[in-house]
Design a protein that fits this description.
The protein is α/β, with parallel strands linked by helices. It contains 14 helices and 6 strands. The two termini are 27 Å apart.
Length: 324
């Protein structure tokens, strides 16, 4: 069954505070599996190594993690491990990455006193020895080529409104030539850079000098959407211990970008020599393409509405009469 997402806004007024506190306490009782990213794990490791005398303040997120260190919760290292193992530009060999994973897992098990860390060293070692330096998707090299191409378009600079759609067309044509699906988050993230999405620009980290640009890092951050979406479905289908999942990152821009996507459904189909995985997502178009929308989430005008619909057509979204 496809998942749906409903958003509610409750004003933080004196009259509502008791209700909001009740909801917060109730929410903490729900068994949750938290997926940790590399940035969060790095902060955890530093917190265990820090000298309390004269040390700078810890990130606030660590206090939040400690509050969620409860016996009914779990923390997963798998998305971070997947990103590290598939990084084609990593300086680690198999042994070096295995030792790094051991350090990471040791830190996690030392930080969390009550919650369970799902992965163990044996699983991490087997994963690394099998998949180190190999992108699990057939199109992995194409994703790198695509990102390098988009970096060359210099869309980290502002583009004149009259030239934005042409740049979007160029990006989609390149993706099609590499057999990348029209609605892939990499394409949407690239288009978002054209239309003023700061979070997308910060996540992709395009550089003026191509030698300074890391396609692997950009790809790893964007693919967390699909990876966590797929792992979440596996948990919902097979792991009765947890009622929900949550992605945790200390990277504010990645956190914002991640929230612009919601994975409704993941469907896997077994072929003769590969597995095809289809993702159905809902996006917040007004957050990805803010230059075209007003503060209320509607197209700024007729010209912007027309451009939004043309973008939807480029990425294979349903053709609707109005973007509002």
């Amino acid at each position: 069954m496809k998942k749906q997402q409903i958003r509610m806004q409750i004003p933080n007024t004196p009259e509502n505070r008791a209700h909001l506190e009740f909801i917060r306490q109730w929410s903490q009782m729900i068994p949750t599996l938290f997926f940790l990213d590399l940035c969060t794990i790095s902060h955890i490791k530093k917190s265990l190594e820090r000298d309390s005398d004269g040390a700078p303040p810890e990130p606030k997120s660590l206090a939040w993690l400690r509050k969620n260190d409860l016996p009914h919760n779990g923390f997963s290292y798998l998305p971070a491990l997947m990103e590290k193992a598939s990084d084609a530009q990593s300086n680690f060999d198999v042994e070096g990455l295995t030792q790094e994973a051991i350090r990471d897992l040791t830190a996690l098990k030392g930080f969390f006193k009550q919650a369970r860390v799902l992965e163990d060293i044996d699983l991490a070692s087997k994963y690394i020895s099998t998949l180190k330096g190999i992108h699990p998707e057939i199109l992995g090299p194409s994703y790198h080529d695509f990102l390098s191409f988009v970096n060359g378009l210099r869309i980290f600079n502002a583009i004149a409104p009259a030239k934005r759609y042409k740049a979007a067309q160029n990006i989609c044509e390149k993706a099609a030539s590499l057999s990348i699906h029209k609605g892939h988050p990499l394409i949407l993230a690239s288009l978002a850079c054209i239309y003023g999405c700061v979070a997308a620009k910060k996540v992709l980290k395009f550089k003026d000098d191509p030698a300074d640009f890391s396609p692997s890092n950009a790809l790893g951050d964007v693919q967390v959407i699909q990876r966590v979406g797929q792992l979440t479905q596996l948990i919902e289908q097979n792991e009765r211990e947890f009622a929900r999942t949550q992605f945790v990152t200390d990277d504010r821009h990645l956190q914002d970008f991640y929230k612009f996507f919601f994975v409704n459904e993941v469907v896997s189909e077994e072929g003769n020599d590969s597995t095809s995985i289809k993702y159905e997502m809902t996006i917040q178009a007004n957050m990805l393409f803010p230059d075209l929308f007003d503060e209320d989430g509607f197209a700024k005008g007729e010209a912007e509405n027309e451009e939004i619909l043309k973008i939807y057509a480029l990425v294979g979204f349903p053709n609707e009469a109005s973007a509002t």
